[in-house]
TrEMBL record:
Region (Disordered): 1-41
Name the UniProt record assigns to this protein: TNIK kinase
Domain of life: Eukaryota
Acidic residues bias (residue ranges): 25-35
Organism of origin: Chaetops frenatus (Rufous rock-jumper)
GO cellular component: cytosol
Tagged with keyword ATP-binding: no
This protein's UniProt keywords: Kinase, Transferase
InterPro entries referenced in this protein's UniProt entry, alphabetically: STE20_Ser-Thr_kinase
């Protein structure tokens, strides 16, 4: 419960506005904090994963170009020989 309370405390500033708008009751606030907090956490993870995938794609594209350039550097050697 210690870890859960710390994570909930970290999400409360983001969740408070939605919680007060959606549910005025205390019991609903607790449930909404957990559900919306997890939703925000999962959405942030998805955004981070997508960003990593986009960066990985960019890096892969950058790595593909040197491999295509190296054969060009090999062909002049064949031409010289």
């Amino acid at each position: 419960y210690g870890m859960g309370s710390s994570t909930k405390a970290s999400f409360t500033p983001f969740v408070d506005t939605r919680v007060y708008q959606t549910s005025p009751t205390d019991e609903d606030e607790d449930e909404d904090e957990e559900s919306s907090g997890n939703a925000l956490f999962t959405s942030e993870l998805l955004r981070q994963e997508q960003a990593k995938l986009n960066e990985a794609r960019k890096i892969s594209v950058v790595n593909v170009n040197p491999t295509n350039i190296r054969p060009h550097s090999d062909t002049p050697e064949i031409r010289k020989y």
